[in-house]
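Quick entry, no commentary yet.
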Amino acid sequence: MKELIYGLNREFESRIRLGIMSILMVNDKVEFKTLKELLELTDGNLASHLSALEKANYIKVKKQFIDRKPNTSYSASAEGRKAFVSHLKLLEQFLKKN
């Protein structure tokens, strides 16, 4: 049981990062504004969590201009998908043991 808890990925301990990854797992890409609205976060709060996930190579960031306006979208990387699925499997195992 102890190994299950310590095996959980620390990058996903935050409910916000859990939410971000959950959204990205079921969508090809999601814009910053959409993530902000879905998770009901401030720009700064969302940006700091996205930055942490980007540093861990769990998400990919695409910056572009659309009609002369900056647009940033995010997607889960292959490494991020693998890590998130592993995290969820450990959570399931933990729940089944309790």
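second:
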Amino acid sequence: MSKSLITQSLFRAVSAKRPAKGLIHHSDRGSQYCSRGYRKILDQFGMKASMSRKGNCYDNAPMESFWGTLKQELVYHRHYRSRQEAIQDITEYIEIFYNRLRRQERLGYLSSAAYEQKFYAGQLAA
């Protein structure tokens, strides 16, 4: 994974979600996330960096679970002819199926998008 890939991903996420300052950005201890350049970008967005403890895989368990789901439900059943085809297919899976349609027991059988919408509606009502 290159620094440019994670930097582009961060910019896309910030552009799409416009998070408030103080957001906690959790990652593993990869060199890309530890780099001065990446940490500087987090600071510019007002994000706080949080990293897994050394040797503790459980710190990143939710993300590791997602990667396992993505591989089992999509990637292992496909053969991609190009990187661009893989990017398009995986993006559609995440943005359309996983976030908007796939219901999750731990979210009260709502999709991620429906759960988020319900959460923010509750915040406005309070």
